[in-house]
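This section describes the prediction task in plain terms. A model, or a person checking by hand, is given the sequence of a single protein chain and must write out its three-dimensional structure as a string of tokens. No templates, partner chains or ligands are provided. The sample shown here is typical of the held-out split.
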Amino acid sequence: MGTHAWDRLIDGFLTGIVQRPIVLDIALALVAAGIGLVGQPSAAAGTQAGYWIVVVGSCAALVARRSAPLAAMTALAAMLVLHIVVVAEVGVFAAAICMVAAHTTQTQLAGLWRWSFVGLLYAGTAGVLLYPSDQVVPVDPASRPQLLALSWALLTVAALGGALRRRRQAGIDLIRERAAFLETQRHAERRLAAAEERAGIARDLHDILGHSLNTITVQAEGARSVIRSDPDVADQAMATIGRLSRDAVDEIRGLLDVLRADADASDRRPTLTLDDLPQLTEAYRLSGVGLRFTIDGDPREPPALIGQTAYRIAQESITNATRHAPGAPIAVTVVVRRRHVELSISNEFPRKPTHNARSLGGHGLVGMEERVHALGGTFSAGPSHAPDAWRVAAVLPWRRS
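The expected answer:
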């Protein structure tokens, strides 16, 4: 077996031990049993039987010290008391069990139980070592305080090691909780971004189809009315219908490409800006709509996303005006400021109600408002100061204030 194979085998073995703490506890119990075998006292058969009851019971408690820590510590305390009763000597096994118990109280027990058991260990050690019988501690009584100080020092080291391990494990658990929270938050942000992107695509589809179909309808009706009296105008209207259809198909194909792409929503790039507004308004003028368009400032200066939003608001507002107030004049005004863009679209109400006139509410206004608020701007739509006019106004900041 090669060196790399041995390394993989050892790594797998260590990983398995770390992932299965019961293996460590069983190994600790086996080591304790070995210590008990080496340090067994030389006494009568009855004492030997009692000693091995203590060893076996203590090892069983060590195996259960993680799964049932309170019961395991209680069993260890009982075994140590039994050890004092049945064995007339304090050996290395009892010392080792006391240190393991001191460490375990700090890593596995909580609150009052942790300090109660470690306090019992200190008190029990003091009682045994200061006991005035030479059979239990066969040393000079004058040396017993030094032996007690050494025993307490070892217990303190074991308890401090357990406390440090507990603190380290608490830090690791906190890091894991934070990582899990951040992962959950990241998934939530992804879902929110996906929902916002779907809402944006839905708004784009609404604007594209609403504008294109409405303009196509107007052009088709105009072509039908003049197809015999003025074939050239009818031909021009049909050409406009063809161009609008192709543009709509291209834009919808672009939106479908965004849906198919694996990139984040932030990678999506606007395709229409303020530079495209003259072409939009010209298409309506060619269809016979009385539309006046003015722009003050450089349309290429604002960021692309601001320009796209302004384009979509103007597109939706003009579409609504031609649908709900057919034949009414429309005024589109764009003012490019240093840090924001002002947009205004107004139209007169129709003189006579028509079959095309419907409620001015719906998804279009909601979509425009969502677009503006997403950029930190302001939006309003409703009757203007003029008694018979409707106005849509928006202010689009270049950056959030």
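For orientation: The beta strands are 291-296, 330-336, 340-348, 378-383, 389-397.
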